[in-house]
Design a protein that fits this description.
Length: 283
């Protein structure tokens, strides 16, 4: 019996340390590095500084549409690693198609003050949306685009703020909607961590996750997920889609990996995305 308890102890203790430090599990910020200089690829974004409710100074880049008036403004909630200078190129191309793009860094990323955690990231999402509404209200409707870890922040932001803005669409790419669920899925993949799965519910909180995805309706939601994604498993995207109400659309990318929808596949999904956006304007 003592041997059994000893084995359980040495299995559970690493899981406690792993999951109790949520920031180290979900967030990998880089403060100082410039990954891809926008000037080197023909972009000249405006530096934007704004504050959230906790008075943290946050940083973003505003990329204006190449035509006026803009068709809409896309607010980009990027993924969990590095900073906005390594993420903006995923969507910067769309400014040539008549859309503004605003990308911002969460607390602790890039030039943004503070430290990342589920609450502070959500507060930065609120603040980014508020900044666009206050300063760019004449720039057309708003599209929220959340990628990877940014997707869970984007979904909750859309739920909490949709009544305050002219929200046209929510897009979530390679994402999940529960910190507890993704931790459980990750723990289930290895024989050593498999017994630790219940710890994901005991040690992680979904207080700042989206509680009711159906409440986004009637705003349409586009879910994108590569079927070979090894970072955020496809089953997590399926769960997001399952919990949404209509109108909703799912793009299952057969050979897609993590967040590669607009870069591989001969870039055919760029055209498909533009067509999808155009169809939203039709009766």
């Amino acid at each position: 019996m003592r041997r059994v308890f000893a084995r359980l102890f040495f299995l559970i203790i690493p899981g406690v340390f792993l999951l109790s430090s949520c920031s180290s599990v979900f967030y990998y910020p880089n403060k100082g590095r410039l990954y891809y200089d926008p000037k080197a690829v023909g972009y000249a974004p405006e530096d934007i500084y704004f504050t959230d409710n906790a008075q943290r100074k946050l940083h973003g880049w505003w990329f204006p549409a190449e035509e006026s008036p803009a068709k809409a403004t896309i607010i980009f909630f990027h993924g969990n690693a590095e900073n906005l200078t390594s993420h903006y190129l995923h969507l910067a191309w769309i400014t040539a198609e008549g859309y503004n793009l605003f990308i911002f860094d969460y607390p602790g990323y890039g030039l943004s003050e503070g430290e990342p955690n589920p609450k502070s990231c959500l507060e930065s999402g609120y603040a980014a949306l508020d900044w666009v509404v206050k300063n760019k209200s004449r720039e057309g409707p708003i599209i929220i685009y959340g990628q990877s870890m940014g997707g869970i922040v984007a979904l909750r932001t859309a739920i909490d703020k949709k009544s305050e803005v002219n929200l046209k669409l929510v897009v979530v790419d390679s994402t999940f909607a529960s910190f507890q669920r993704i931790a459980r899925v990750k723990l289930s993949h290895n024989w050593f961590t498999w017994p630790m799965q219940p710890l994901s519910y005991a040690l992680l909180s979904d207080h700042w996750a989206p509680a009711d995805l159906k409440s986004i309706s009637p705003i349409p939601v586009l879910v994108i997920h590569g079927q070979k994604d090894a970072v955020v498993e496809p089953e997590l995207g399926e769960k997001v889609f399952e919990q949404l109400a209509e109108p909703k659309t799912f793009w299952r990318i057969p050979d897609g990996t993590h967040t590669d929808v607009f870069w591989r596949h001969d870039r055919k999904y760029r055209d498909a995305f533009l067509l999808f956006l155009g169809n939203l304007d039709r009766p």
